[in-house]
Design a protein that fits this description.
Length: 235
């Protein structure tokens, strides 16, 4: 785990120059991974929470939090119980804080510029079984992550003047009509009216979303939808 932490060039990650301190990330993660008691875990947490992945006093989150998220989850799974609690608390804080203008997104491998909160939620969902095993705190964190839903379109058909889009839903798209960001080939646009037509069945992530006043040719397979409100989150 220490090698994975050291392999990241934390100084190359973007962040507000007045608030983001990359040295705090590397030192804080190493210290948290090696923490053997409550005091050591708390000291590591203060490094990460005071300008590392978040700046707790100003309630700001940095792009580094996305890179750190799987490492914090590893620490939570493998480290001291005090380190686990600190790591989970930092993940909760990172998910709820808002980023500074100009540093609101991270670039995914496919070139998609994803809102920080949605990228963190993706990492959390990847460890669902572990977080559920933590009980109330883990379930609460997963419930918060669910609000940062993601829908990948696999197939579309015309339905009147709308499009019925079939695909894979991660998280929870609430009832009602919502704005969504549509990501395709590294670009994103806003869809003004999206609603959940059929929710996923038990043990399946497949769902159907209705996109109002859009034609199927505008929504090719591979398009990914995110909540538009997440893209508007700015500190």
């Amino acid at each position: 785990m220490l090698d994975e932490i050291d392999a990241v060039d934390w100084g190359s990650l973007p962040g507000h120059a007045a608030w983001y301190e990359p040295d705090r990330v590397a030192h804080g993660l190493r210290a948290l991974a090696e923490a053997a008691n409550l005091v050591q875990a708390a000291e590591a947490g203060s490094l990460l929470g005071g300008g590392g992945i978040v700046h707790g006093h100003s309630a700001a989150v940095f792009p580094a939090a996305v890179v750190a998220a799987p490492l914090l989850l590893d620490i939570a799974q493998q480290g001291h119980p005090a380190a686990r609690d600190t790591a989970v608390g930092l993940l909760d804080e990172a998910l709820s804080c808002y980023p500074h203008a100009g540093y609101t997104r991270v670039v995914a491998p496919d070139g998609t510029a994803v809102p920080i909160c949605c990228a963190i939620a993706h990492h959390l969902r990847a460890r669902t079984d572990f977080l559920l095993g933590l009980g109330k705190r883990g379930k609460s964190l997963l419930a918060d992550a669910a609000a940062h839903w993601r829908f990948e379109i696999r197939e579309c058909v015309a339905d009147g003047g709308d499009t019925a889009a079939f695909g894979i839903l991660a998280g929870c798209l609430p009832d009602g009509v919502h704005e969504a960001e549509m990501h395709l080939a590294g670009a994103n646009t806003v869809l003004s009216e999206v609603t959940l037509e059929y929710p996923p069945a038990e043990d399946s992530p497949e769902a159907c979303v209705r996109v109002i006043d859009r034609h199927p040719r505008e929504l090719p397979p591979g398009v990914i939808l995110f909540p538009a409100e997440c893209g508007d989150r700015v500190h």
